[in-house]
Amino acid sequence: QDSKSLDTYIQSTLSALYPPFEATAATVLWQLFNIVDKLYKGDGLRCLIDFLVPAKRALQCVQRETCAKYTGLIFYHEGWPLCIHEKVVIQLASLHRVRLKPGDFYLQIAPAGKQLAKLVLKCLSRCGQGMEVVAIPEAMYGCIFTATFLEKLNSEREDFPLKSCLLTTGSAVYRTPWKNIINPIFV
Predict the structure, then answer these.
(1) What pTM did the predictor assign?
(2) Which residue range is the domain that position 103 belongs to?
(3) Cβ neighbours for 86, distance < 8 A, ≥ 6 positions apart
(4) Each residue of 23-56: pLDDT tens digit?
(5) Looking at the domain assignment, is residue 110 inside a domain?
């Protein structure tokens, strides 16, 4: 009974964050199960309390603040900015098997300790070797999905300016120009 209610809560949380859930479920559930296995040693309840609940708050904040400037408009992709139909924009887990190219980056909500989650941007390091993780302060959540956000990051990156955001669907990865993500389509 308890595991059934845990599953129900997880699915209802993810379906509210990443609609249409029938299109995103395979991706976000696989990423969450990966986190449960690797970070929480199979303890789904601990993952829920320490990661998913704080991640939900952060992702709702990003969604609310980003969408506030579009009040009264109906998004063609109801999950924007967290997803664009079946393509997940803000990942729940690291994309370990993806080979980053210069200019690639992805957004992830990452565990940050007990009952904490933080939004990060991951890309090649400035020297082109290894991974750089850029923490995004909560005060910036409302301006992530703007051209200005990427311009500010690129002002500090001369050699490898960021331009393509990685989106995922299942095991497929899509390199998408940032301008295609930050300009939502409306009904």
Answers:
(1) 0.95
(2) 1-180
(3) 20, 23, 24, 27, 169
(4) 999 999 999 999 999 999 999 999 999 999 999 9
(5) yes
